[in-house]
Amino acid sequence: MTDTAIMPETATPIVKAVDIAYIRFSAPDLDAMERFVNDFGLVVVHRDDEVLISRGLEPMPFLHVVHRGPAKFMGWAFEVESEGDLDALADAVPGCSPVHDIGGVEGELGGGKRVHFVEPITGFVLEAVHGQQAEPLAPRRDRITYNHAGVDDRVGVEQDVSGNRYPIKKDPGPPEVYRLGHVVAAVPPGAHQAFMRFLENTFGMLVSDAARMIIPPGAEEHFPPPLVELIKSTGSDVMFQFMRMDRGAAETDHHSMLVLPLMDGTPEAQFSHAAFEVFSMDDVFRGHMHFRERAAEGAPYALAWGVGRHVYGSQIYDYWHDPYGHVHEHMCDGDRVDASYGPNTIDMTDPGQLGDNGGNQWGPTVEESGVHNLNGPQCDPRFADRPDEIRASLLSRDLSELQHVVDAI
To answer: Residue 198 and residue 92: Cα distance in Å, rounded?
Structure first.
């Protein structure tokens, strides 16, 4: 079998993206989504009857866009280095729009230029942007200084990570989101490998860690039958890939994309989750406590997975389903690497690679959490109780009701 993860590069990529810029949704109730983004720690920069736009503290005009429409994840944007990169995408990618000024409210917020297209393997709307500008937002609190055993960086100052010493409250309030870290897509088996190659060849993404599932002859009985059939159906043993930007000697996140195979038979690609960076482990736990209290009060949020620390990427994480089941992650302390890192191979047949706690250094076990964030909004514990039209729109990549939005991007 061909190993996609370590196959030598066969073509120069069209461009080399430098970051993930923002994610885009639609939802029938923008009021519910506005409450969610505020609880998550984003800053709303525009709201009208048709769109909700939010940002973090980093100097980017927005990170999160929600249009009024059916409950659906639409796609995301890559940031590229130059307008010439946008020209290259417009010339080389079938169905790509011409290069144009970012218009409407989004252009008013940060200017810049972009292209967009509907990616045919997944059906996601992919965008590329350059030249957006915004001033950073000042955090409300200073960064936390920690005392590590034997190294005391905080002396004579009480630790008050959320203004919550007196009065002591159950709900510390939301953390502050700094930036968008990564996006994860779950794609039907076989197609997920084609999408990995698309990301390599179109946006120059590099493989950091790739999971392989090699099942020796006669060992099939030791693995779940659906997993065996999935591997046999793909024509490759690559299960998933953590992928990062190629920024040469400059450091970048261990992964800006993770591509997973859909394991539950859902026929169309799904949004698994997006991760947003906060400043510290205390901020991750702060978000967990805030969402836990809000959910207890009746807010439409559900815990997906957390709190824990990953192995691959090392992030301390906490994942929650939003009002429509899409998973948003608070994370901090991820690995930073340059282009010389990897690619590394994760042998999924080695029990030491994942273990009972699902690849965590510490955190909830698979049995405790079910790792419910991975496949898409259908893993939300409330999904079966949603109206038929909501369930259908969440899982479908059909953009016909949103064509006016796509045309305006």
So the answer is: 13
pLDDT on residue 399: 98
- 131 CB-near residues (< 8 Å, 6+ apart): 83, 111, 112, 113
Amino acid letter, 121 = I
Q: What is the CA radius of gyration of the chain?
A: 21
Of 193, 192, 253, 189, the C-alpha closest to 7 is: 193
The DSSP H or E segment spanning 391 is: helix 388-395
Cut 0.70: pTM above it: yes
Distance CA 2, CA 103 (A): 44
Measured between alpha carbons, how far is 180 from 57 in angstroms, rounded to an integer?
A: 10
Name the domain count of the chain: 1
Nearest to 325 by CA among 374, 370, 255: 374
**360 domain-assigned:** yes
Residue 1 has a pLDDT of 32
CATH code of residue 357: 3.10.180.10
Q: What's residue 353's pLDDT?
A: 63
| 149 part of a folded domain | no
Q: For residue 234, what are the contacts with CB-CB under 8 A and spacing of at least 6?
A: 189, 190, 192, 193, 261
374 Cβ contact list (under 8 Å, min separation 6):
184, 186, 260, 263, 272, 273
Give the per-residue pLDDT at 360.
86
Q: Rounded CA gap, 282 and 165, in Å?
A: 14
| Mean pLDDT per 10-residue segment, the chain (409 residues) | 42 95 98 98 98 98 98 98 98 98 98 98 98 97 89 91 83 96 95 95 95 66 66 76 96 96 90 97 96 97 94 95 98 97 80 69 80 83 96 98 97
DSSP state of 323: T
CB atoms within 10 A of CB 357: 18
Per-residue b or e along 118-131, where b marks 16 or more CB atoms closer than 10 Å to that residue's CB:
bbebbbbbbbbbbb
Residue 145 lies in a domain: no
> What's the confidence (pLDDT) of residue 5?
44
Query: Among 131, 124, 78, 74, which residue's Cα sits nearest to residue 102?
Result: 131
Residue 88 lies in a domain: yes
For residues 361 and 95, give the distance between their C-alpha atoms in angstroms, rounded to a whole number.
Answer: 43
Q: What is the pLDDT of residue 4?
A: 42
Q: What is the residue range of 124's domain?
A: 4-136+173-408
The dihedrals phi and psi of 334, each to the nearest 5 degrees, come to -80, 160
